[in-house]
């Protein structure tokens, strides 16, 4: 738990004042609560007892009784309001801190590379940002608002009891070490089962996210039963871990009650004898018994929240795991601002792999600013990987990529990416209006600029037929649009970005022949000074390129103008001959 709290320590600094005041009020409450049994002692020893003595010289019983009742009301009222304010301040600080942590984890996930995200499951990561942070937050709130004051109360009462009668206190609390040991053992078991439960919960969330995202495949291939069976299996693991926690937790309360009852029996046994012997007054015994009862209350509260703690610790370990992952792609010290680049790009002996077989094996290619270069080659040749090195979606393993003669790693990542417009193979849209989806390209663009980009990318061709035009809402991940329509929105985005480097990764693969021709025409209307990389299979898309690089097996196997390559035998010539798709000598 301490380790978990340490994770949140840096975020506590902002709320130091609130935490300090909350803790001070909690201490004040403890001090006031220590006085709670004393009115009873006054009533017993100075009002009702046959051998009563005057209280501070006051003989009149009614006055003493009135004073005792007034004292009780003041003590209880004061303790209640101190309790209210300390709980409120400490809970507010805990909740705000966890909201901050959630934001930090969310941003941190955005900084981690595509390689990291490729190796993780979306559902599991979203569980870490949502319910894991919630569980950790529950733990912090409980630690601050419940545990800290209760621990202070225990220490305070123990101190007063020792002061009143040290030997009697030790007898009364003789069983406490056994209780602490039993609670500790159960907490260790709880922590282990909570860890398993959190892991299983992450897997359940991941399975649900994946399955819901693949609805068309599930229904088309009638995978409903197998998906349900897999889901049930994961749910069972989570259920088993949850049941084990419940079993351990159910032991807590009876354990505390039993220890408390045994201790009370011991106190009554010895206490009654001491009152009869005249060693202590009846009032003092009552204060003792009352303290003892109250002393076990915080221990009970502690055992009750140990489930929250076990779950919170397991959850905060998962949050910490994310925060401890160092972003692979980050700004180097003294990184430059990539502003107003001209757009020349150079690949120097570039090697890359995703952790297995090499994907790029020594690429050398210099592309001048303003040049349009087409990348063609068979599936899996490494074309998309090569272009994703430019905006540093991935980094080279060996060799370097230079933009405007400087290594891409010497620019600030964000500024470098703002100089690159990229149409990805997989056109992902957000749940927002068409216009807002286009505006992603340049958030500060005016409506007129968005409309112009939509016109150039032929978005208006279909948007005009929609009830709200560009203000029509798009379903999650663009589900309400066709593949070709999504591709056009994605191209409009890139046009709006107006960056010196434009990367089009199979921008027209989902378009029909007529739309493709119109789009290629539209793209050629863009200012000619931008450097354009176009990954394509269709000859019609690459005909306008200044040069073509043919990739195969992670190497450039042909390089030249479309005319030069068409004049030589090889994969490019095959395409020209067949008038189809450039593949490894294939055709469409
Ligand atoms: N995120 C990834 N993790 C692991 N391997 C990957 C990843 N992305 C691509 N690969 C592998 O890298 C190789 C090159 O992929 P890449 O997408 O660059 O090829 P491509 O030439 O663009 O193919 P296509 O024409 O089919 O789009 C492939 O063998 C692919 O399996």
From TrEMBL:
GO: which molecular function terms? Answer: ATP binding
- Please list every transmembrane segment annotated in the UniProt record, as residue ranges: 64-85, 143-164, 170-188
Tell me which residues make up the ABC transporter domain. 345-578
Q: How does it sit in the membrane?
A: Multi-pass membrane protein
CDD domains in UniProt: ABC_6TM_exporter_like (cd18564)
Which UniProt keywords are listed?
Answer: ATP-binding, Membrane, Nucleotide-binding, Transmembrane, Transmembrane helix
Span of domain ABC transmembrane type-1: 20-311
The main location is: membrane
User: What segment(s) does the record annotate as region Disordered?
Assistant: 568-588
- Record's subcellular location: Cell membrane
| Cross-referenced Gene3D superfamilies | ABC transporter type 1, transmembrane domain (1.20.1560.10), P-loop containing nucleotide triphosphate hydrolases (3.40.50.300)
Q: Which PANTHER family match?
A: ATP-BINDING CASSETTE SUB-FAMILY B MEMBER 10, MITOCHONDRIAL, ATP-DEPENDENT PERMEASE MDL1, MITOCHONDRIAL
Supply the name of the protein.
Answer: ABC transporter ATP-binding protein
**Native source species:** Pedococcus aerophilus
């Amino acid at each position: 738990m301490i380790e978990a709290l340490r994770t949140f320590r840096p975020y506590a600094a902002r709320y130091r004042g609130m935490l300090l005041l909350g803790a001070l009020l909690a201490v004040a409450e403890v001090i006031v609560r220590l006085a709670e049994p004393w009115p009873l002692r006054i009533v017993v020893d100075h009002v009702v007892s046959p051998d009563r003595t005057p209280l501070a010289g006051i003989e009149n019983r009614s006055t003493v009784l009135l004073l005792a009742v007034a004292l009780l009301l003041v003590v209880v009222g004061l303790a209640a309001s101190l309790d209210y304010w300390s709980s409120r301040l400490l809970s507010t600080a805990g909740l705000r801190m966890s909201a901050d942590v959630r934001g930090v984890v969310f941003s941190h996930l955005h900084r981690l590379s595509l390689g990291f995200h490729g190796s993780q499951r979306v559902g599991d990561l979203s569980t870490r940002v949502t319910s894991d942070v919630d569980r950790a937050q529950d733990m912090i709130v409980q630690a601050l608002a419940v545990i800290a004051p209760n621990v202070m109360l225990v220490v305070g009462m123990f101190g007063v009891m020792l002061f009143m009668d040290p030997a009697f206190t030790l007898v009364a609390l003789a069983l406490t070490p056994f209780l602490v040991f039993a609670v500790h053992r159960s907490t260790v078991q709880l922590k282990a089962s909570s860890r398993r439960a959190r892991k299983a919960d992450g897997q359940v969330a991941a399975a649900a996210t994946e399955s819901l995202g693949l609805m068309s495949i599930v229904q088309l291939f009638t995978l409903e039963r197998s998906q349900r069976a897999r889901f049930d299996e994961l749910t069972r693991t989570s259920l088993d871990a949850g049941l084990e926690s419940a079993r351990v937790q159910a032991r807590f309360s009876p354990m505390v009650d039993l220890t408390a009852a045994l201790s009370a029996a011991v106190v009554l046994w010895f206490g009654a004898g001491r009152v009869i012997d005249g060693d202590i007054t009846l009032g003092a015994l009552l204060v003792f018994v009352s303290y003892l009862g109250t002393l076990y209350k915080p221990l009970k509260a502690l055992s009750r929240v140990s489930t929250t703690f076990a779950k919170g610790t397991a959850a905060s370990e998962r949050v910490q795991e994310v925060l401890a992952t160092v972003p692979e792609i980050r700004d180097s010290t003294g990184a430059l601002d990539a502003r107003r680049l001209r757009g020349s790009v150079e690949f120097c002996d570039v090697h890359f792999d995703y952790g297995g077989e090499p994907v790029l094996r020594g690429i050398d290619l210099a592309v001048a600013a303003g040049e349009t270069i087409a990348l063609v080659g068979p599936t899996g040749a490494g074309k998309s990987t090569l272009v994703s090195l430019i905006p540093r979606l991935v980094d080279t393993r060996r060799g370097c990529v230079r933009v405007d003669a400087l290594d891409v790693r010497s620019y600030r990542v964000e500024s470098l990416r703002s100089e690159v417009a990229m149409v990805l193979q997989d056109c992902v849209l957000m749940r927002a209006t068409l216009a807002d989806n286009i505006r992603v390209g340049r958030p500060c663009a005016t409506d007129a600029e968005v409309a112009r980009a939509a016109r150039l990318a032929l978005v208006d061709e279909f948007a005009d037929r929609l009830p709200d035009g560009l203000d029509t809402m798009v379903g999650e991940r663009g589900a309400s649009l066709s593949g070709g329509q999504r591709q056009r929105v994605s191209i409009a985005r890139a046009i709006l970005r107006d960056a010196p480097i434009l990367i089009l990764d199979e921008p027209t693969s989902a378009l029909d022949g007529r739309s493709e021709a119109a789009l290629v025409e539209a793209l050629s209307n863009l200012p000619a000074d931008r450097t354009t990389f176009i990954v394509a299979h269709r000859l019609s898309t690459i005909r306008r390129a200044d040069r073509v690089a043919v990739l195969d097996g992670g190497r450039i196997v042909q390089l030249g103008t479309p005319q030069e390559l068409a004049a030589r035998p090889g994969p490019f010539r095959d395409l020209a001959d067949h008038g189809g798709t450039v593949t490894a000598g294939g055709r469409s």
